[in-house]
Automatic annotation (TrEMBL):
Biological processes, Gene Ontology terms: regulation of DNA-templated transcription
PANTHER family found in the cross-reference section: REGULATOR OF RPOS (PTHR48111)
Name the UniProt record assigns to this protein: DNA-binding response regulator, OmpR family, contains REC and winged-helix (WHTH) domain
Residue range(s) of DNA binding per entry: 128-226
Species this protein is from: Paenibacillus tianmuensis
């Protein structure tokens, strides 16, 4: 039985999600504030965490960062009434695997839970060999990126985006494809989230005196050309 943790302070809404998930066969635990949510998330093993952004005692983004700092790769779906692009970026940049604005259909939530659990299961499979191009090196086992031997500080999402582009070198990937491969969205979202993260990556991996690692193919998407 898959275990789901819900961190949500709106009791009626939390109860609604709990009953729906239990009906689908999930084992569900509900906590109502951020501090308890972080403690619970890092104390036990979970198949997925549904995390509200606006929580008492500790903000949802901080809870997610705390989960990642503690070394847990548990899939996190951020739930929030805020739906601007920068809010989505903030949620994903904190380490969330998906972002679902309220209100939403329970069928979509269930589909996203299945998707993040499925991707997490795939990601825990056989270890991938290290990838190298020019001065960049990605070690998928350690989850690190280095440039000329120096380890770079990337967020979880930046790392995953770079890994996808490195795994598909010389193949142009559209923004929609990158959203699906990195974020796993199952519905239409604003693709400029990809542009924001490519800019973040370029700021961290590029040398102004050299050609950018990530090339823009105007009107289509991005590619790392070798």
């Amino acid at each position: 039985m898959k275990k789901i943790l819900i961190v949500e302070d709106e009791r009626n809404f939390a109860r609604f999600m709990e009953l729906e998930l239990m009906h689908q066969g999930y084992a569900v635990t509900v906590v109502g504030n951020g501090r308890e949510g972080l403690e619970t998330a890092t104390r036990d093993a979970w198949d997925a965490i549904l995390l509200d952004a606006m929580l008492p005692e500790l903000h949802g983004f901080e809870v997610c960062r705390g989960i990642r700092r503690a070394g847990f790769a548990t899939p996190v779906i951020m739930l929030t009434a805020r739906d601007s692009v920068m809010d989505r970026v903030s949620g994903l940049d904190s380490g969330a695997d998906d972002y679902l604005p309220k209100p939403f259909a329970i069928e979509e939530l269930l589909a996203r839970i299945r998707a993040v659990i499925r991707r997490n299961k795939r990601g825990s499979g056989a270890a991938q060999a290290a990838l190298a191009y020019r001065e960049l090196r990605i070690d998928p086992v350690a989850g690190t990126v280095s440039k000329a031997g120096a380890v770079l500080e990337l967020t979880k999402r930046e790392y995953e985006l770079l890994l996808v582009l490195m795994n598909h070198r010389d193949r142009v990937l559209s923004r929609a494809m990158l959203l699906d491969l990195v974020w796993g969205y199952d519905c239409e979202v604003e693709t400029n989230v990809v542009d924001v993260y490519v800019r973040y990556l370029r700021n961290k991996i590029d040398d102004p005196a050299q050609r950018s690692y990530i090339q823009t193919v105007r009107g289509i998407g991005y590619v790392i050309r070798t």
